[in-house]
Amino acid sequence: MDPATVGLIAFAAVLVLLALRVPIAFALAAVATLATSFIFAFRTGTFMPERAIRATTSMVFSNSFDLIHSYDLSMIPLFVALGHIAYRAGITTRIYDAAKVWLTRVPGGVAMASVMGCGGFSAITGSSIACASTMGRICTPEMLRMGYDPRLATASVAAGGTLGSLIPPSVLFIIYGIFTETSISALFLAGVLPGLLTLLGFLVVIGVWVWRVPGIAPATDRRYSTPERMRAALGAWPAVLLFLVIIGGIYGGIFTATEAAAVCVSAAILIGFAQRRLDFAGLWISVKETCVQTAAIFFIAAGAKIFVAFIALTGVAPMIVETVTQADLSVFVLMLAIALIYLLLGMFLDPIGIMVLTLPLMIPLVESYGLNLIWFGVVVIKLLEIGLITPPVGLNVFVIANVVGKEAPIDKIFAGIARFLTVDIIVLILIMSFPAISLLIPMAAR
User: Fold this and answer.
1) Which ranges of the sequence are coiled-coil (predicted)?
2) Angle between helix 436-444 and helix 373-387 axes, rounded to 10 deg
3) In this structure, is residue 60 part of a structural domain?
4) What residue numbers bound the domain in which 272 lies?
């Protein structure tokens, strides 16, 4: 059996294991290791498993070792720690508090504040699911208590939580950059305009929805004085400062993305202790949560690296490139096919799993068409973002459902999500049609 056929069978086996809910790290590593052993054992034409042991173990351990010792990978625990520390210090929720005070008189203002709070949370944590989980506990119960329709109260937070995928820092951008060997700093900058465009679209959805059906967001009699508004706005300065350090430092060439993460972690700790919102117990909990989340990501990354090496060994990627080249597909048809694949996988798999599974095959194909990998990275992350709220799985939807409980069943949340999905599709089309939306800031930063 030729290596390319083994590669295709292995890829199918991984999909089957993922459908059976086998953890992505174990599925990738196990299939890649066994299939690599099979290839090496038949290298001489005769099945000789003893000859495969040394070559297979060398490939497995060298690739996973090189990945874990990657400098770029060090920013993942730093940004994860930043998110946990900023949450414990009360930094990540200040933007929501400020937006709520300023928008409380606007129809649907609390839902808008929730989306803006999710955007602010995402600008520090970089995790969509963490954003949905945290902001869901804060925003959704309050909107339900105020009489908001459960569809609006839950869907606004579930959709807003996806902003963590695009608005930097994003863990998905970091993993994409490592596996494609593209600049993570450039990817962060490329995600700013698409992320803000998505945020603006969500606010428009809420405004139009409430305008057409006023009863879904009852007005409130609560009044805030001008001094209260100013205090709320000024109270959000730590979150704004951290975001400016990340984006301004990278854009201005002052920091690398890793250095920006380290500086922000130190700043978040100092601000938390100075404002007496963070103590040593909270810091220790943040460190433990960081270790658990980082370990999970590293296991997935290590398994993916082994799988990437296996795919390179089989020659499947060049075979696919040659097949597509012979088919003479246009860029439009190619990108449409890629989008459909990602949207389909997004209905069933988690974003990191989809990315590490598909990139070994997609990147050579995209490069053969001469497409910009920074722009393609934004397109991929946007597609993964859409998958977080796409039925039947929609991880963010299930996170919100677990937070809210019986007050908002899954079907109601998905019913509200449909409007936000429309905006996501429009933004996706704009990003794919006009690459300048993604590349403007990275090109200006050169």
Assistant:
1) none
2) 130
3) no
4) 72-297+374-444
